[in-house]
Amino acid sequence: MNRIEDLITALQKKEEEKNKNTVLWVLAIIGAVAAVAGIAYAVYRFFTPDYLEDFEEDFDDDFDDYFEDEDDEEK
How far from 51 is each of 8, 30, 42, 57, CA to CA, in Å? Predict the structure, then answer.
């Protein structure tokens, strides 16, 4: 009877190890996908031109021109 109980506990331990192993694999796959997505986003942000920067420069130039025109009219 003792030998049967040992076999049963050994089988239960084996099942628990399979479950832990499966969870570990799932977490590893999720981590790998997240890492690839993060790298892809970083590369995208690095190579995408910043259009807002050009807009702000143009706006500043127009804004300065407007005030220069007012100063000339007052003189």
Answer: 67, 34, 17, 10
